[in-house]
Amino acid sequence: MTINSEYYETLVQDEIIGKTKRQKEEKLKNSKGRRGRKKTKNMYFTLETENAIIAFNKETDPTVKGKIYNEYIKYPMEKLVESIFNRFGFSYFDSRPADVMSETLSNIMLNLHKFQEGKGKAFSYFSIVCKNYLIQVNNKNHEKWRDRETLMSSMPESWEVEDDFKIKQRQDDSSEFVRLMIEFWENNLNSIFNKKRDIKIADAIVELFRKNDSLELFNKKALYCYIREMTGCKTTHITKVIKAMKEIVNDMLQEYLEFGNINSVNKKYNDVFWKGKT
To answer: Crossing angle, helix 196-210 and helix 235-259, to 10 degrees?
Structure first.
């Protein structure tokens, strides 16, 4: 869709620039004889911005709305968000500051239509919208991290991944061992554990090994925390399953380091499984 240039120029002159000029003249006339306030240099959110928002909300043509936003609203709103974000020093965010400010700007855009002419200043209104959104997200993340820190502080010190499983070979050997180990648990999980709870915990542990390349935290407390969040099970139950799995994994590792495979461990548990079926 092409923009009606004549219509757009008329809109800009009448609803944005012209209206702003008339408002300034009226304000100057009313304040004549009184000492006015000193103007702030480099003011980014002006009366012109407010008039552009009003014109934006009245407009029905999406192409014209986009042009108004890009030319008159986008930059002032970006500066508004940046100013409030830096002023209040919000710190509990999962994303980079630039991403947080971009999400905040998107939230402001969703609320742009709610501003009504004659009911306060646009700058004050959207400052509150911006600040409330950042406070809400910041507090939500703070609660999440506080709960995680509380949970991690109660985790036992008994699971050292590198030491317990002794995966200290070259990267390619380690990856091959992990692949064989995951394959073993996928084939034997239900035969080694009988309780649904234990199977769920063991499956969560195996899932962590599947995703080991993408885990941001890889220490005993963080892993316990991940498993707890995935299963909803108590730490004592998780520790019990880990202990049982660790004994089998140590057998696997010993065989792998000696022979380069885990065939005998596979055969051992397959024989146990079929013996239980007869």
So the answer is: 50
DSSP assignment letter at 142: H
Distance CA 208, CA 215 (A): 8
3-state secondary structure of 259: helix
Pick left, alpha or beta for residue 166 (phi over 0 → left; psi -120 to 50 → alpha; otherwise beta). left
Contact 72, 19 (CB under 8 A): no
> Whole-model pTM above 0.85?
no
Domain boundaries along the sequence of the chain: 5-29+44-152, 161-277
Specify the residue for token string 């219509």.
7
Which residue's structure tokens are 């936003």?
Answer: 69
Which two structure tokens, joined as six digits, stand for 2? 């092409």
Residues of the chain under the 70 pLDDT cut: 1-4, 6, 14, 27, 29-42, 89-95, 142-173, 212-221, 271-278
| Cβ contact 161:218 at 8 Å | yes
Contact in structure between 73 and 56 (CB atoms under 8 Å): yes
